[in-house]
Amino acid sequence: MENEINNSGTKSSSINSGDINDLMEIIEINKLSRLRAEELRKGVKELLGYHLGKPLGKCTLSFGVAAFPEHGMTNEGILKSADNALYRAKNEGRDRVVVASVIN
Fold this sequence. Notes:
By secondary structure, the protein is α+β, with helices and mostly antiparallel strands.
């Protein structure tokens, strides 16, 4: 993204095609990550486990999804974003997938 000063003296931004391609790739990665986590969540929910011959209750999963670079620039940053998203998933009722908020 390029910043420039326009004729009125205010700062404006323009997006080049490389930025758009990068943005589309990030959106696709987030979408695929969320979809995969949803598949896992639903699949585990359908499992029926037994212990000592007795059926166990249904298992649920909550996921926090984060990816480089939009959710963190370091391993620690990405893990923190995923952890925050996981806590949001649990606080919003559990058994769900939450994608981390984009960092600026």
